Amino acid sequence: xxxxxxxxxxxxxxxxxxxxxxxxxxxxxxxxxxxxxxxxxxxxxxxxxxxxxxxxxxxxxxxxxxxxxxxxxxxxxxxxxxxxxxxxxxxxxxxxxxxxxxxxxxxxxxxxxxxxxxxxxxxxxxxxxxxxxxxxxxxxxxxxxxxxxxxxxxxxxxxxxxxxxxxxxxxxxxxxxxxxxxxxxxxxxxxxxxxxxxxxxxxxxxxxxxxxxxxxxxxxxxxxxxx
Length: 227
Known about the structure:
α2 (16-40) runs antiparallel to α3 (48-68), α2 (16-40) packs parallel to α6 and α7 runs antiparallel to α8. 56% of the residues lie in helices and 16% in strands. The radius of gyration is 28 Å and the shape is elongated. 22% of the residues are buried. It has 227 residues and is α+β, with helices and mostly antiparallel strands. It has two domains: 2-134, no CATH class; 145-225, Alpha-Beta Plaits.
């Protein structure tokens, strides 16, 4: 009976200083998570409000854990209340969800006064994120850009551009040839990987310097193929 009363009875009492310490700890660690997310984000769906959500979610989780304590009935009541909430904001990137869960986990650990987990956990998580961000792990990029230009019919694109591509790229692959200007010319399309990511303009200038080549253009594919 005593065990049942302890589970259903009053929650564990924290002093005001303990509550304040837990809230500050959860906020500081979630700020670290938000900073790492902001630094490593590479997609087009960046949202300032989502970064702030990462920083604030752990505080909410911390408050709930402090309020629940060891009270089973109160925990079930809060779980039922939260089940009624429906978030209408879609989260398309699974990586964003992981950061949000990490923030919640940090707040839960801080609210439960498991200080070592609340500190070591987010720090290790941030280390893993930074390692994956700067390492080539899971990357499948073969080409960085799509180069297009027009040549008169009968001209050999490979012969004219070989020297320029060797000077500016590490790999080249022809992907398409099609008629242009009512059959009087041919449009060539090459996928290329640059030796120097900042050498896009130099490659275009050198291709335009070839007398037979016209309408040179280059579309970078790094951000559209893998974000």
